[in-house]
Amino acid sequence: MNSDSNWAQAVQHMQETFGAGLQQAMGAFGGVTPAGATKVPPGLPPVDLSMFSQQQLTFDAAQLQQIQQSYLADASALWSQTMQAGGAAQAVPDKRFSAEAWNDNPVAKFSAASYLLNARALMGMAEAVEGDAKTKARVRFAVEQWMAASSPSNFLGLNAEAQKKAIDTKGESIARGIANLLHDLKQGHVSMTDESLFEVGKNVATTEGSVVFENEFFQLLEYKPLTAKVYEKPFLLVPPCINKFYILDLQPENSLIRYAVSQGHRTFVISWRNPDESMSGKTWDDYIEHAAIKAISLVQEITGAETVNMLGFCVGGTILATALAVLAAEGEKPAASVTLLTSLLDFTDTGILDIFIDESSVSKRESEMGQGGLLKGQELASTFSFLRPNDLVWNYVVGNYLKGETPPPFDLLYWNSDSTNLPGPFYAWYLRNTYFENNLIQPDKTTVCGQKVDLRKIDAPVYIYGSREDHIVPIGGAYASTQQLLGKKRFVMGASGHIAGVINPPSKNKRSYWTNDKLPANKFPAMQTDWLKSATEHPGSWWTDWSNWLKSHAGKQIAAPKTYGSRQYKAIEAAPGRYVKAKA
After folding, report:
1. Is the dihedral of CA 141, 144, 145, 146 positive or negative?
2. Which of 66, 229, 374, 583 is buried deepest, with most CB atoms within 10 A?
3. Cα separation, 519 vs 531, whole angstroms
């Protein structure tokens, strides 16, 4: 048999092997329905992966040949290392297998090294798939999920570290692991931290304040001044409604809310109601009119200020910008300034989330809940966790259940586990008009609250922040807002991810941020070249840069109010209020 025939057979074998592996990946990811739609992490639309059958997948032959050659060479080297000196193979360069027990156990070390070798080959084959960018991204994601789930570290029979701990503790770690598993099954999610150590209003969300208004959508919180004088223009924060507001008020040392108050801003925050069945029919228009716009008018009434400094975080930024566009269409311009933190207005670059969005998936969600229903909070939480499965899922499976450990206290992860529901019609509208059709950036394409939405009518000064390693709002997506708003803009890039990059107080003196007054009219990845190449890096927190910017738009200082609210809007209850304590 000639070499060409051998190679053809090898290619066919690799294609068949990859096709079978991909089917297993999809099966592990939720299984394929008769219609060809596979389940995805709950909370996102189902993805049609029927295109990934081995009959339809095609590969780049040159890449496959290179993968085969590299695989055979690496496998041969691994076997030789294992056979030499009684199995003294090289240490495995992966934190999942970094414990001494893995290195001391030749069988475990070999299984880890073999797993990583196979993972590299499979990911290489995923890259060799021929197709459009979305097809390749979907294949990569399915394989990544499969490889994350199949790691030998996830199984007690293969995890040398967990086995050693079981021996050292005389089985106590196994007993604790079973207890942890039963506890997590009861609560409905994997514990990322010791949740028993936290209580909202007691040691998280503790900045002193009061609820001064409430309706079925939100409570408006006003915070007690920490300075004798405050700026005349108040400050309103609009957090994401898919999570609870206290990500901005975790503990005093890392609270953005407390920081704003300490800088002399009369601060108000929307605390979203956690929707129950009574809100299952609420729409995007409802949230804009009865929450965002209502909150803006309330702050104006309570303080007597004509204009307000405003901040939107993540989906809160999208909601805030939509509300301001609606008000602009009505001839009102209440914003003294706007801050957008890791927010999307232009949904061209949505990163990994794009693989879940197409016509069939969005239509399915619309048929399921477009007219009513709830998207459960835990489904959304699971979705975002599975975007980083090794760090946010399997790491805790191994620690909690195989090793019997209690995860350490971490306020941010406690907040991350405190999930919220979403009304189905709100969610269905959001999917179609933002992630799928990207309608908000098309002037007058979308009608909200009876008004045509045109983001260009928002001409207030705007501070736009994006996190460099953000996997939910990619840095290019955050930067794209600079091209949609006409007011004077400042764009700042911080280090780290979607949450850790934002919650980076100056007192910690951690990380860096980058500034550049020039805002070239392009998108990621060109933005990285054109903007970042001449950007200036600053050590520490971006909060100080933002604070100086915000003060320049806050007006003169006046005596701080001695009471909450106003004659019409009196204190209802102490912050953080009832709404934030409601569980999904």
Report:
1. positive
2. 374
3. 7
Residue 317 neighbours by CB distance under 10 Å:
28
Cα–Cα distance list, 515 to 57, 509, 563 (Å): 44, 17, 39
Structure tokens given for 88: 């003294």
Cα 424 off chain centre by: 20
Instruction: Give the pLDDT confidence of 566-583 residue by residue, as tens digits.
Output: 999 999 999 999 999 998
pTM score, whole prediction: 0.88
CATH code: domain 209-376+419-581 is 3.40.50.1820
In the chain, where the domains are located: 3-167, 209-376+419-581
Q: Would you say 421 and 274 are in contact if contact means Cβ atoms under 8 Å apart?
A: yes
Q: What percent of the chain has pLDDT over 70?
A: 88
Catalytically annotated residues: 314
pLDDT of 49? 41
Query: CB-based contacts of 472: which residues, under 8 Å, 6+ apart?
Result: 314, 342, 351, 353, 384, 387, 498
Tokens of 420: 């919220």
Q: How far apart are the first and last CA of the chain?
A: 64
Q: Give the residue-averaged pLDDT of 68-87.
A: 80
- Which pLDDT score, from 0 to 100, does residue 188 have? 86
HSE-up (13 A, CA, CB side) for residue 582: 17
Write the pLDDT tens digit of every residue in 110-157: 899 999 999 999 999 999 988 888 888 989 999 999 999 999 999 999
Residue 42 identity (one-letter amino acid): P
pLDDT at 326 over 90: yes
Q: Of 474, 484, 485, 487, which Cα lies nearest the Cα of 528?
A: 474
Alpha helices in 392-499 (DSSP H): 395-397, 411-417, 424-430, 475-479
191, 400 contact by CB (below 8 A):
yes
